[in-house]
TrEMBL record:
Keywords: Isomerase, Metal-binding
Family: Belongs to the methylmalonyl-CoA epimerase family.
Domain VOC: 4-134
Protein name: Ethylmalonyl-CoA/methylmalonyl-CoA epimerase
Length: 137
């Protein structure tokens, strides 16, 4: 299974405050901006491309969202690292056979056609890792 860095999710208090750095300093381009109201997600998202890499700025939509709790506990900064795979089901199966645990309730397809699941941070020494694939590939 090949794992390719897909994007980095960054927790921010305000996308509007954070966005100028990524656009004006890193010369990124804003590819998309949307809100995910999915229970357990609840974030505003700004998708920024810098050359061949993607950064997702993630702003909580309410004070009880998982993103708001993350910022309260750990502060702003890197929230997760996402790796793209060709076959998400196969990647989950292969990793599970190697003892990797997943946060099963995070398996979903987002509104942009990305199918994803998060690896339990206990399996990654504390880093939240997303595995994803795209329906339009």
């Amino acid at each position: 299974m090949e794992y390719v860095l897909d994007h980095v999710g960054i927790a921010v208090r305000s996308i509007d405050d954070a966005l100028p750095f990524y656009l004006n300093v890193l010369n990124g381009s804003l590819e998309d901006r949307y809100t995910s109201d999915t229970p357990g997600v609840e974030v505003h998202v700004a998708v920024v491309r810098t050359n061949d890499k993607v950064i997702e700025l993630l702003e909580p939509t309410n004070k009880n969202s998982p993103m708001a709790r993350f910022i309260k506990q750990r502060g702003k900064g890197v929230y997760h690292i996402a790796y793209r795979v060709d076959d998400l089901d196969k990647a989950i199966l292969e990793a599970s056979k190697k003892g990797v645990r997943f946060l099963e309730d995070t398996l979903r397809t987002n509104t942009r056609g990305r199918r994803l699941i998060y690896v339990n941070p206990a399996s990654t020494d504390g880093t939240l890792i997303e595995l994803c694939s795209y329906l339009n590939n």
